[in-house]
Amino acid sequence: MPLNLTPVGTGILEATYVPEVAAPSKVLVMQEGTQVPGSPFHVNVRPAQEVNKVHVYGNGVNSTVPASLSSNFTIDARDAGSGKLSIGLTVRNQIPEKVSVGHESMIQVDCSRAGPGQLMARIYQVGELIPIDMESMESNPGVKSLYYMPKSIGLIKGEIRFGGQPIPGGTFVQYVVTPDELSRPEPKRANEVQHVAQNYYPVEFKLPCMPLSRSTAYKAIVIRPNGKQVDIPVEDHFDGTLSVRYQPEDKGMHELHVMNVNKKAGTSMPLPGSPYRFFVDSVSTGQVSAHGPGLTYGVTGQKAEFTIVTKDAGGGGLSLSIEGPSKVEINCHDNGDGTCTISYVPLVSGEYTISIKFHDKDINGSPFTAKVTGKCSGTGCPPHSTNSLIQI
């Protein structure tokens, strides 16, 4: 086998070699054809790892140990060579990074070599526990299957313990997304141009928010009518408000989810009022349509606005009503271009129903639901639901 000699001092050489097989070997050391005293030297070459030389002892490996209480044992691997040591309690299937909202997910844990003990699991979302069903496999009773179903989009955090102690790979964070997002193929390359339809009104939200900590960030997601999920940027104005802008690509009812995400802690908290539902209509003439943030959300004591488009719709009666926890004053401004701007100031938080009718028929998306957040104090806050109606 190859051998290297390296001078390390006057008249001193260091010899290094790598044994190729595990077997008794001889090392011959010769000077000018004559063996030096003691040569040949006998060397017993052993395998790099010898599992049979690992010794385990202690109370923690007795035939019975109490569950959920600390038990200790010692592993002596000093004579076993080099290698990685592992203990037989593992998550059997790889925990995915993403799971689907409203659909059952499953994690398998192999406890077959873990000895006596109780398997426990907790999964949290928005500070609440998600119910978990635990089943044993008939073909392998030592394998446990954990079933759970996330109920909302965001982050969930899970922890799996055996005998009261965390198991390897048992602490995890998952993103909860729509079923379409879970099955979506890899994103297109940067040089591939994607068509974006421009015949829809852009949507902009300005929402109240709390200041961020160093470990948190705001995240916004739009779920389109076809179920596809779109991540959109969030602009924090650092004045207690944030803005979200979205260019729709299709017609119909959309959902906007805005949340405060702490990825390190595995938590996400939706903004008050989230998710926001909004209807997208095409920019076309000959029909009455409506768009604007006031159809979707509002803040108590602040003006909410939206626009009604009547261009080329012909003659006919247009009526508007807003019904909710408080009576609101409705103001209408004719813009002179076939559109009018509607504004109102909600005084009490809750859901407001906005009905827009043309020829006594609801326009597309009507009735709309605006979620109003915040509190109103003082004598100007009515205690019960009232209705506001105007004819335009």
From TrEMBL:
Top-level division of the source organism's lineage: Eukaryota
Keyword Repeat: yes
Pfam assignment, any one: Filamin
Filamin repeat windows: 1-45, 46-176, 202-280, 280-372
DNA damage keyword on record: no
InterPro entries from the UniProt entry: Filamin, Filamin/ABP280_repeat-like, Filamin/ABP280_rpt, Ig-like_fold, Ig_E-set
SUPFAM superfamilies named in the record: E set domains
Signal peptide range: none
Keywords: Repeat
Record-stated family: Belongs to the filamin family.
Protein name per its UniProtKB record: Uncharacterized protein
Source organism per UniProt: Cichlidogyrus casuarinus
